[in-house]
Amino acid sequence: MKLWMFGLLLSQFSKLLKGLDIMVDPPYNPFWVLEGTTFRASCSAEVRDLEWFIDGSSPKVSGYEEWRNSTTDGVRTTVTISKSKMGWDVSPNIICRSPSAGKDVVVGVNIFAAYIRNANISEGNDVSVECRPDSSPEVSTVSWSRDGAPLSNDSGRVILLENNTKLVILRSTPADAGVYTCNMTLQAGPKINQTFTQPVTLAGKPYLFEKMSSHVQVYLNDSLYLTCPVKGYPSPEVYWLHNGDTPVSPSTRVTMSTYEDVAGARLSVRNLTTADMGLYRCAAENGLGRVVKTFHVGVTGGALTCTGHVISLVLAAGVVTWVMRVE
To answer: Looking at the predicted structure, is the pLDDT value of residue 39 above 80?
Structure first.
């Protein structure tokens, strides 16, 4: 056989062997899975007889879902398996196999748990939350963030303790309430890491986050707009009262909408009448506390005429003056 022909055959054989390689995605081994979350993996190769085996059986026997896809020419096959709410007591033996290629890929799956401790704010006192991966992962790191911004010991009143697994906020305020993100990074192989995120909640009573004038002056037949600048976690329920304990209800003239992600925190009243003047209160509650904002609403302008008598109605700064002339 000529040398160039041998080289060509060797090249084609190398390409064939390479095409028979089984590729697993994601490429972690071992593959870490957080207890209670979803495990999902795919394997692909230029073969038709690609199969997953869970503890020696079909994935469906162990409660896994399975999808199979092939390229239009039928050369490359991809098989995906998925299972939700992986249990702590499960350590599956997972293999992707192609009998025709004579190859197996063993996927090591390690399931770990994380201890999460949420907390409620007691205003003015220090408060702490925790996020601890269990002792199984040999190499793990923990970091924290809130609304996408990382937190550290340099973040104002924040202190991180016990290898960053404990987040402490000094002299807590209601504004500290919300959802914090715990980022757990585990080593999944040499120079390969997996990162898992878990929400950790710090609950607090509602609070007024913005100063607004308590006195509002509007015109007769105009529209009134009031906003209740309230926040809290859990998000508070807002309701409105008029002149005492009379609830304000939606109607053709009255609507309540969302303000700063709080439902019902914006009140609109159209075609104002003299009956709409007075005191308005927005009250916000979330089970941990209650906050109230009061508005003094005055209606300006207008005239009334009654048969037999002429009555002038003058409204200024919310003060009503009646002038009667007897005919």
So the answer is: yes
The predicted-structure confidence for 44-95, as pLDDT tens digits, reads as follows: 998 888 999 998 899 998 899 999 998 877 778 999 999 998 887 677 889 9
For the segment 196-219, the average pLDDT, to the nearest whole number, is 94
User: Please, are residues 104 and 45 in contact by the beta-carbon 8 Å criterion?
Assistant: no
How many whole angstroms separate alpha carbon 293 and alpha carbon 239?
11
Output DSSP code: residue 21: P
Mean pLDDT of 288-295: 96
Q: Is the preceding peptide bond at 26 cis, omega within 30 degrees of 0?
A: yes
Q: Where are the beta strands (DSSP E) in 118-177?
A: 119-120, 127-133, 140-146, 149-151, 158-161, 166-169
4 pLDDT more than 70: no
Residues of 14-49 as b/e, b for ≥16 C-beta within 10 angstroms?
Answer: eeeeeeeebebeeebebbbbbeeeebbbbbbbbbee
**By three-state DSSP, how is residue 20 classified?**
coil
Tell me the C-alpha to C-alpha distance, in Å, between residue 191 and each of 133, 164, 187, 199, 292. Answer: 20, 22, 8, 26, 54
How would DSSP label each residue in 260-285?
TTEEEEEEEE-S--GGG-EEEEEEEE
Long-range own/partner contacts, residues 165-168 (CB < 8 A, 24 or more apart): 165/130, 165/131, 165/132, 166/128, 166/129, 166/130, 167/128, 167/129, 167/130, 167/131, 167/200, 168/126, 168/127, 168/128
Residue 137's pLDDT is 59
Residues 172, 124: contact at Cβ < 8 Å? yes
